[in-house]
Amino acid sequence: MRAALISLGSKSSQWTIEEMKKYFQTVDSINLKEIEVNLGGGEVKVLYQGKAMSKYDCVYAKGSFRYAPLLQSITGSLFHTCYMPIKPEAFTIGHDKLLTHLALQHYKIPMPTTYVASSVEGAKKVLEKVNYPITLKFPQGTQGKGVMFADSFSSASSMLDALESLRQPFLMQEYVETSGVDIRVIVIGDKVVAAMKRKAVVGEKRANIHAGGKGESYLLDANTKKIAVDTAKSIGAEICAVDILEGVKGPQVIEANLSPGLQGITAATGINVADKIAKYLYERTKKRTEKDKNTEATKIFEDLGITTTEKNVQQIITNLDIRSNKIVLPKVVNDIAKFNEKEDIVIKVNKGKIFIEKM
Ligand SMILES: Nc1ncnc2c1ncn2[C@@H]1O[C@H](COP(=O)(O)OP(=O)(O)O)[C@@H](O)[C@H]1O
Ligand SMILES: [Mg+2]
Q1: Is the model more confident about 289 or about 152?
Q2: Is the domain defined by 113-174 classed in CATH 3.30.1490.20?
Q3: Who has the most CB within 10 Å: 118, 217, 226, 241?
Q4: Residues with CB under 6 A from ligand 1
C-alpha cells in the first residue's frame, strides 16, 4: 500500500513519515507549498510540482491555518480515491476556533461560554456584563500567540480598540481558572492515545509549550476521554489534539488542533505517538482497500436481518452529506439503484445502518 503525508515538513511530520515507513510499502513526503489544485471543466486536478499527483491508498494531509483553503481543496478532491483521516471540512472548522466552538455546541460538548459580537460596540456591550478576567482570542491563533486576558472592562475595551484598528477578528471567552494548567489530549480514531498536563511558567496564563509551559503525563477519567473523542468527531478529524481546561464546572474544551506537535507529548508521556498514528493509518487504509467489499455489504444486510441472494451488491465509500437534517446520497447511488421520483420505498434503519428498498 502506498501512502503520502502532505505537510509543511515539521519535525513531527518527519517522525510520522519514518514510523509510516514501518507499515506502508512506500511513503512519500509531499510539501504542501508545492501543491496546486485546479477546479473546473468537470474534473479536479491536484498537481504536485506541476504534475498530476500520484495515486495513493492513504493521504494524511496537515498544515497550518494559513493553508486551510488549500488543504480543504486537496482533501475534497482526493477524498473518494483514498483513505484520509481528516475530512475536508475539518480543515476550515479545526483551524478556526469559532467554527470549532459551533461544532462543539452542536454536539453539546462542554466549553467555556464564548461570545461573538457583530462589532466592537456590540462586543463592549457584552464586556459590560461579563465576569473578569475575560479571555480574548484570535479565531485562527496558535501556540498561545492569539490569546489575551483582560482583568477589567477598561483593559478589555482598549484591547478591542487595538484589535479593531488592526482589523483583527476576535472572540470573547469566559476565563476558566486552572492556575495556568491545561490538558493536551491526543485522539486517534475513537481512542485517547496520550494525554499531558501543561503548566504555564510563573506569571503566564497560557500553558502552551511554545509559551514556556511544561508538560507531564496525565491520566484522564472516562468522562474527559469521551469529551476528547467526541470533540475529534465533531470537527471531522480521526487524528487530532484536543485542549481541555479542568475548571470548577468540569472539563471544558477550548481547542482542537489538526497538526499537533509531537515532541512535547512524546517527551512528557514516553508514548510513541507517531507510531500510533502510523499504525492507525495503516489499519484504516487496509480496511478501506480490502478487495472483497461485497462481503462487508452482505454482512450489513445480514446484521439487519435482511437475507439477500443478490450477488451484485455494490459498496460505495463516501462521507455523509447531511443538509437541513436530510441525508443527501451521491448520484451514483441512484444510477445503480434506479429509484424513480416519489416511488414507494421501505426504509429499514438501525443505529449506524440504513437500508432502502423498493416496495
Ligand atoms: N478560556 C480560557 N480560560 C483560561 N485560560 C485559557 C482560556 N483559553 C485559553 N487559555 C489558555 O491559553 C492557552 C492557549 O489557548 P488556546 O485556545 O488553546 O489557543 P492556541 O491555539 O493558541 O493554543 C491555553 O492552553 C490555556 O492555557
Ligand atoms: Mg491550544
Answers
A1: 152
A2: yes
A3: 241
A4: 112, 135, 137, 141-147, 173-176, 182, 200, 205-208, 243, 245, 254-255
